[in-house]
Amino acid sequence: MAMGRALVKFENLHELKRLCHWGPIIALGVITICSTMAMIDAVLWYWPLETPGGSVNFIMLINWTVMILYNYFNAMFVGPGYVPFGWKPEKSQDCVYLQYCKVCQSYKAPRSHHCRKCNRCVMKMDHHCPWINNCCGYQNHAYFTLFLLLAPLGCIHASFIFVMTMYTQLYNRISFGWSSVRIDMSAAKRDPLPIIPFGLSAFAASLFALGLALGTTIAVGMLFIIQMKVILRNKTSIESWIEEKAKDRIQYYHTGEIFIFPYDMGSKWKNIKQVFTWSGIPKGNGLEWPVKEGCHQYSLTVEQLKQKSDKRLRSVRYQAVEDYSGACCPMTKGVKTFFTTPCTEEPRIALSKGDLILATRGLKHWMYGERILDSTTDGETRVRGWFPRNCVEKCQYDSELDQPCSNCYSDQCTGAERCGDEKGNLMV
Asked: GO cellular component terms (predicted)?
């Protein structure tokens, strides 16, 4: 099995720093509270070693905890797998079908995307998950999905124990009268006496753990359903979004194209086997993928290039009319701006009066775009993020087509050339 590979072999000890993040701290805290309280309450409700049923119940609780933590840490530390620095396809002519990542100094392999959090191009990237403080992708997709399945199942078992514990422990302490209800939180009148006294604090702790377990069951269970929907079609969450944008692009321009997702094997079982294997090691190398008949290895990347070009054509240039510090919830930009800040981990960009920004999408009080750097700026790092709409005003030019290219600043640069490198390949 892959346990030794995943949990023992750390190529870099700095990976342990992933635990120092609010996501893993909260996730492991919930697992610890629910598991610990479930085991304590199991002792109160069922003697673990006195009956076969009690023993099985207690062993199952330990088993849930071990399996949940095993898949959780695998998803975190095995990681998604990254495109090697400097990677390019074997055939140089295939470079025209791929985007080039300036940060990784390599071409983006099919199904890979650059993650701003990890600062790497991730193979078969699904999303960056704050709960594991890592990306979900090619190598850890199965571990992550199994964690999403096991966590609700374990919480359902724990919830049953919490309910039964509170019921059995309070059964002899509640007396119903015609005019009042009396609850006695002293030791239960039970022979033999419980090993652990069930007082008011224990009742409150069990009730709190029950709330955490039920909330986790609903929230994580919904995430599991979402993941299984994309896995059954051999997609990722990002690829589902790309497919939707492809349909919108075709409908907007009335091109008459028919976009076919190339990685759907046509069978749900075959699609599942692309993610889940008995060895725990996914099929392939994460760089090349089997495609359905009628498609080729770069069918999806070609669609991405079209969408990138269309995004540039429809982007709008704005100029900052006042400074913005980059705060998540700015206090000085109005009440509506403060309370409608985007609920996302995407960054905010600080603006100075006079800065030029290329906006690609927006909300009522916020916009998302890229700050245009002048030709004298050192480095090639792009600055993208959200900024308040009332800090900018639209330039007299309606779109980027009416302005010099933000990469080469040439009035003659148009269309797909606008954001390309010296070979004409679109940049990240």
From this structure: membrane
41 and 165 within one domain? yes
Torsion angle, CA of 298/103/309/368, rounded to 10 degrees? 130
> Is residue 353 included in any domain, yes or no?
yes
* CATH number of the structural domain spanning residue 342: 2.30.30.40
Of the chain, the end-to-end C-alpha distance in Å amounts to 37
How far is residue 312's CA from residue 328's CA, in Å, rounded to a whole number?
26
Q: Helix, strand, or coil here: 117?
A: coil
Choose the final residue of a domain: 214, 231, 248.
231
**Angle of the 22-45 helix axis to the 141-170 helix axis, nearest 10:** 40
CB 156 within 8 A of CB 267: no
Structural domain span for residue 322:
316-398
Residue-by-residue pLDDT tens, the chain, 428 positions: 444 444 444 455 667 889 999 999 999 999 999 999 999 888 877 566 677 888 888 999 999 999 999 999 999 999 999 999 999 999 999 999 999 999 999 999 999 999 988 999 999 999 999 999 999 999 999 999 999 999 999 999 999 999 988 887 776 555 444 444 444 545 444 555 555 566 778 888 999 999 999 999 999 999 999 999 999 999 999 999 999 999 988 988 888 888 999 999 989 999 999 999 988 888 889 999 999 988 889 999 999 999 988 888 888 999 999 999 999 989 889 999 999 999 887 889 999 999 999 998 889 999 999 998 765 555 556 788 999 999 999 987 544 444 444 443 333 343 333 344 433 333 33
Length of the chain measured in residues: 428
Same domain, 72 and 168: yes
Question: ∠ at Cα 309 (304, 311), nearest 5°?
Answer: 90
Residue 366's closest CA among 397, 334, 398, 396?
334
Cis peptide before 347 (omega within 30 of 0): no
The answer to whether residue 217 sits within a structural domain is yes
Residue 202, SS3 per DSSP: helix
Instruction: Cite the active site residues.
Output: 129
Query: Is residue 260 domain-resident?
Result: no
Structure tokens at 381: 């790092």
The reply to whether 92 falls in a domain is: no
Single residue among 188, 215, 231 that ends a domain in this structure: 231
